[in-house]
Amino acid sequence: MNTKKKEPMFHIVKRAALPWYKAWAIRGIALLLSLVVCAFVTMLVTGDDPVAVFRTMFTGAFGTSRKTWVTLKELAILLCISLALTPAFKMRFWNIGGEGQVMMGCLAAAACMVKLGDALPAPVLILVMIIASLGAGMIWAMIPALCKAKWNTNETLFTLMMNYVATQIVAYFIIRWEVPKGSGKIGIINQQSHAGWLPTVFGNKYLLNVLIVLALTIFMYIYLTYTKQGYEIAVVGESERTARYVGIKVEKVIVRTLCLTGAICGLCGLLLVSGSEHTLTTTIAGGQGFTGVMVAWMAKFNPIGMVFTSLLLIFMSRGANEIATVFSLNEAFGDILTGIIIFFLIGSEFFVTYKLSRKKSA
To answer: pTM of the predicted model, to two decimals?
Structure first.
């Protein structure tokens, strides 16, 4: 009796590294296919013209000068968080605490504005806020880093739980500073004096945020690609044993990298409180700490690629809100379209990494 199992006709085989243009071509095709599916779903569910829906999405993100600048502001914040998380993730330190680290930076900036706004000259106050925000974010990231380096704790759970701790600390100080008492919010900080507000550039309050994050993107690309520390991060991410074998002090790299991550998250908190929002809430980060994880992963930890993935997600978010307003649809419909596109983009990574190979004839 023949018990030989019949082999499948196709096998999944891991690809050799694709040239960058082929990888991005696959992602581009996935994006186009996702838009076709979105158009079909739109016609099926709403009966609306899908072309009009997509046109409305573009209008929601870039329809006016104000909308364009708001889109760029949100892009800068998401990109900043994504850049902050990238060194840790490239090292395979799964930092899910970006949200909390940003909130601690926000809290430090707000505390300086509330307590020192009338006591220090504007340049000195801004300098103190920068130091405080970067330091607060750094400390919040360094705690799980030290525990990981010394006791090999689970960084995913540790950093995730610290998000909730940060939220409660921020909530406590909001109650302490609330105006008027019992309102549960602190309103616009230093609305009359503008003490602690970052200066406007060419009359635009968002342009400085965009320029700072642009400079940060260039710095992070150079840091990860061309510096010794960036090389050490890559080696630790590939194999801790190999890193130790070649003389890299893994514990030192972990702590140093998380200090950098936390400092950039703290900078993001400064940009939120001092640069654009001028207030403090428990939701000021808007979930971007978690979205930044997806941005970094989709861009394969490439800072330049993150510009485009961040722009895509912000465009979809802004466009979804516009769709809900113009077509009187539930806001969840815009999220459905966003989800379809993200699903296709994530799925395209399978075809970037693997291919189907036909079984050779005997």
So the answer is: 0.90
